[in-house]
């Protein structure tokens, strides 16, 4: 009986692990290897129409999104909160009462456009806000981004 239960548990675990794998095109993997040969802790996810590699490089958390052909769509690098553009902290204080900036990142799109992300939290609630290089808020659907992040975190817990 113990053997049967163990076998069932192993099969369920294997199926779950298999179901969570992302089928990343070879072109994206090859491009990643060329661009970031010293990356560690690499994890791939499906991101809309692209493939996102999250990793560490020189102690920094980073991610890069590739299209199916291996072209970089955007990169994201964690930065210190103090490196956010001027005015971001004031904007958060004025428009998101009770929230605190808990994380920051610099995003560079394929066309060279730079955006800054401020992760804000209030209790268990998290939101991602986006700003241009001058600290002006971007009109991106904050709630959608927050929902995606929350779903991602829930999936990682499972």
From TrEMBL:
The keyword Signal applies. It comes from the Bacteria. Residues 130-158 are annotated as: Disordered. Residues 1-19 form the signal peptide. Residues 130-151 have a biased composition (Basic and acidic residues). Residues 51-136 form the Putative beta-lactamase-inhibitor-like PepSY-like domain. InterPro entries: PepSY-like (IPR021533). The keyword Signal applies. Keywords: Signal. This is Putative beta-lactamase-inhibitor-like PepSY-like domain-containing protein. It comes from Ignavibacterium album (strain DSM 19864 / JCM 16511 / NBRC 101810 / Mat9-16). The lineage of its organism: Bacteria, Pseudomonadati, Ignavibacteriota, Ignavibacteria, Ignavibacteriales.
């Amino acid at each position: 009986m113990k053997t049967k239960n163990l076998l069932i548990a192993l099969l369920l675990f294997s199926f779950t692990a298999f179901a969570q794998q992302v089928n990343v095109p070879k072109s994206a993997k090859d491009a990643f290897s060329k661009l970031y040969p010293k990356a560690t802790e690499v994890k791939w996810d499906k991101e809309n129409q692209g493939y996102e590699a999250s990793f560490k490089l020189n102690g920094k958390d980073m991610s890069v999104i590739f299209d199916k052909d291996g072209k970089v769509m955007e990169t994201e690098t964690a930065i210190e909160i103090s490196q956010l553009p001027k005015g971001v902290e004031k904007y958060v204080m004025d428009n998101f009462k009770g929230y605190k900036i808990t994380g920051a990142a610099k995003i560079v799109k394929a066309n060279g456009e730079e955006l800054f992300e401020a992760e804000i939290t209030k209790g268990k609630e998290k939101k991602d806000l986006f700003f241009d290089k001058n600290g002006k808020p971007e009109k991106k659907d904050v709630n959608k981004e927050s929902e995606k992040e929350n779903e991602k975190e829930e999936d990682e817990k499972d």
